[in-house]
Amino acid sequence: MTGMYRLWPDPAATELTDDELLGCYLPADRSRPYVRVNFVTSADGAVSVAGYSAGLSGGADKRVFGLLRRVCDAVMVGAGTLRHEGYGAMRLGARSRAWRRDAGLAEYPPLVLVSSRLELDPASEMFADAPTRPIVVTHGGSPVDRRTALAEVADVLVHGDAEVDLPAALADLAGRGLTQVLCEGGPHLLGSLTAADAVDELCLTVSPQLAGPGAGRITAGPPTTGRGLQLAHVLAADDNLLLRYVRE
């Protein structure tokens, strides 16, 4: 297992225990709707290597990736990223499931798919093998026949007329008890969440690589007004930096 050390605040030379690391990411108030975004980037700002984020991810990033899924209420992913990265059914290991049961949470967080065109296969593994019913978020202009087909295997939420109304969708999720939303990308979804001022936290792993020109950033879409964040912690593992930023 990759050793993790705290650099800030309260730097320590001793490795963080599993419980201490988990404590770095526990939600402060589960009753309050909260959107946490998790990304990995190269040292020169690339979102992928050879087209995939897996080329940047190592043991430290994967360890935190699993912990963030453990403590969330729902995992949100854009449909394009889901197809490109090859997402399957949303499953967790035995240890994470036991922790969630002890915490009074459902064993598995539902997968929330955000899609405008609904180019999703209802027979795919992400639906057919899902341990809990997925949720598809779309808008009123999406193809009705695809909505009908997907409604057989997922809860389909329609918010917005020609594009997804993310604040309304997040309010709908919170009304279902899914207040702690973990967004795993992709860049266009992060851009839309930023435009809606809906990002409460950014967890960013900086991988010790130079990807070179060509790859995009972790965010994409039309220009928008940004928002200030404040640094909550800095962890280190195997030359990776794991940063956590929260709303000011």
From TrEMBL:
Pathway: Cofactor biosynthesis; riboflavin biosynthesis. This is Bacterial bifunctional deaminase-reductase C-terminal domain-containing protein. It comes from Actinocatenispora rupis. It comes from the Bacteria. GO terms for biological process: riboflavin biosynthetic process. One of its GO terms (molecular function) is 5-amino-6-(5-phosphoribosylamino)uracil reductase activity. Residues 33-241 form the Bacterial bifunctional deaminase-reductase C-terminal domain. Transmembrane segments: none annotated. The keyword NADP applies. Keywords: NADP, Oxidoreductase.
